[in-house]
Specification:
By secondary structure, this protein is an alpha+beta fold. It has a 4-stranded antiparallel β-sheet. A hairpin with a 6-residue loop joins strand 2 and strand 3. Helix 1 packs antiparallel against helix 3. It is globular, with a radius of gyration of 14 Å. The protein starts with a strand and ends in an 8-residue tail after the last strand.
């Protein structure tokens, strides 16, 4: 399993417009093979930042997601509002008590 943490830093005052578009990508992505979870979060400390937290079965599923029409539509819809974007793919580590 892998996680994708995607943070969008937005132009001031555009968060609500971006979140309207988020519902479509969330609904479609959750139906994709390999999608375990897909959620959007609005920052409580920065009104101009949203964070997508996604869990995918593997990198192949995530790469396939990047090729979907709904992903491309999402990126195009919010592009005018995004100042900066950060994406990080992480793998959960096994932590044991010694």
């Amino acid at each position: 399993m892998i996680y994708l943490i995607s943070t969008a830093h937005l132009r001031p005052g555009t968060r609500d417009a971006c979140l309207v578009h988020a519902s479509a990508i969330i609904e479609a992505s959750r139906k994709e093979p390999g999608c375990i979870s897909y959620d959007a979060h609005a920052s409580v400390t920065d009104p101009d930042r949203i964070v997508l937290v996604e869990r995918w079965a593997d990198r192949a599923a995530l790469d396939a997601h990047f090729q979907t029409e709904h992903f491309r539509a999402w990126r195009a819809a919010i592009a005018p509002h995004v100042v900066r974007r950060e994406m990080e793919v992480i793998t959960p580590a096994e932590v044991t008590d010694t």
